[in-house]
Design goal:
4 helices
């Protein structure tokens, strides 16, 4: 897991897939708006790479001079096909599609929280409905690391 102290140094760091192949360099780090934890990195591949792709940082590790993610290149290339319409921050709906590419569940779905705490599934659903007026493609729960002032 990447520590809070390592977050600010991730920009421009190479990202390697589970098999050790470089897939690109970190362009942006996205934090969970509620917890401040690193959730995603926007990774830009070189000319032979997958292009810009969002890769989960949940189980990533910082190893020496690069970030290693526990996903194979095929999963990363599948995620590159998720159309985020040029946004730097994926919407809630984009995230659901990205989670599927990596075989992950939204970690917030695994939290056993009481309604009203902000963490329960119903709280999130109510928040999407209230804030997006049914436009889930426009709603996000993430923020850029540099926007955080870190």
């Amino acid at each position: 897991m990447i520590s809070q102290e390592q977050l600010t140094g991730l920009a421009r760091q190479p990202v390697h897939a589970a098999d050790g192949v470089k897939v690109g360099d970190v362009v942006d780090v996205l934090l969970d708006d509620a917890t401040g934890r690193a959730e995603w990195a926007r990774v830009r591949g070189d000319s032979s790479g997958p292009g810009d792709v969002f890769v989960p940082l949940r189980e990533a590790v910082h190893v020496g001079d690069h970030v290693r993610v526990p996903f194979d290149r095929a999963a990363i290339e599948a995620a590159a096909k998720v159309d985020v319409q040029g946004r730097r921050i994926p919407s809630v709906a984009d995230e659901a599609r990205l989670f599927a590419c990596f075989g992950l569940r939204d970690i917030r779905e695994q939290v056993n929280a009481e309604q009203g705490s902000g963490w329960s599934r119903m709280d999130r659903a109510d928040g999407v409905r209230a804030d997006a007026d049914g436009q889930e493609e426009a709603r996000t729960r993430l923020r850029l690391l540099q926007d955080d002032g870190a």
